[in-house]
UniProtKB/TrEMBL annotation:
Keywords tagged on the record: Antibiotic resistance, Hydrolase, Metal-binding, Periplasm, Signal, Zinc
GO CC entries: periplasmic space
Domain Metallo-beta-lactamase: residue ranges: 53-223
Chief location of this protein within or outside the cell: periplasm
Stated name of the protein: beta-lactamase
One GO MF term: beta-lactamase activity
Cell location: Periplasm
Provenance organism: Persicobacter diffluens
NCBIfam families: bla_class_B_core, bla_subclass_B1
Keyword Signal listed: yes
Cofactor: Zn(2+)
SUPFAM superfamilies: Metallo-hydrolase/oxidoreductase (SSF56281)
GO biological process, one term: antibiotic catabolic process
Length: 244
């Protein structure tokens, strides 16, 4: 996981910047990908890792906003939500949760209170139910395709990896794949937090991702710099080295 000290490099070299990067607060930034899609990057202190930058996705169309993952705590989620509503003049209507860790869903209860529809894989919902966490309203087993203000959104569960429940989200018109923590950045030297990982399934799942979304032009990991399909291959190499 990249620490706060490395964030500036990630921010300015991680994705093509179509406009100036937006600082919302000391805890969260937006980095534009195109005219209606942003990377949201937030910071949280994780025990054993220090201050870590975590990635999420924001899509705004026709005054409506879709989020993929929340920041890792509620106060930062509120900062992001308030900026979207007040400065970008968009209503947050949809949240997709990548897996059950805090850096994906810590802000979900707040967003649900605001009337945001929440979506996750059924495995995520089951884990949350068993551990007393908030559950999404909408669930899917293998795949969920839906229309967001005229744009297609493809959510897939292709197998375990970083966690047993991790999903990926694909925007086919923009060829953007949000891999989340299933995918490691090129600067990653190891797999990071593997406490809840399915190391046996992980390489098989990455292989499925590669075959399912071969046209991806931008691949976004859960932490660190975005890139192309080379992130998938790098993640596979890290898994091979981990086994050794």
């Amino acid at each position: 996981m990249p620490t706060f000290a490395t964030f500036l490099l990630l921010l300015f070299f991680g994705l093509p910047a179509f406009t100036q990067n937006i600082k919302i607060s000391d805890h969260v930034f937006l980095s534009p990908i195109n005219e209606h899609t942003y990377l949201h990057v937030s910071f949280h202190e994780f025990e054993g890792f220090g201050k870590v930058a975590s990635n999420g996705l924001l899509v705004i169309k026709n005054g409506k906003a879709l989020l993929v993952d929340t920041p890792a705590d509620e106060p930062t989620t509120i900062e992001l939500y308030d900026y979207i509503t007040s400065e970008l003049n968009a209503q947050v209507t949809t949240l997709i949760i990548g897996h059950y860790h805090a850096d994906c869903m810590a802000g979900m209860p707040f967003l649900q209170e605001k009337g945001v529809e929440t979506i996750s894989g059924s495995k995520t919902s089951s884990i949350c139910k068993n551990t007393g966490k908030a559950q999404s309203q909408r669930k899917f087993k293998k795949a969920l395709n839906f229309d967001f203000e005229g744009s297609k959104v493809d959510c897939r569960y292709l197998g375990g990896g970083h966690t047993e429940d991790n999903i990926v989200v694909y925007l086919p018109e923009e060829k953007i794949l949000f891999g989340g923590c299933l995918v490691k950045s090129l600067s990653s030297k190891n797999l990071g937090n593997t406490e809840d990982a399915d190391l046996k399934a992980w390489p098989k799942t990455l292989n499925k991702v590669e075959k399912t979304f071969p046209m991806s032009k931008i691949v976004i990991p859960g932490h660190g710099r975005s890139g192309g399909m080379d992130l998938i291959l790098h993640s596979m190499d890290l898994l091979k080295n981990h086994k050794k």
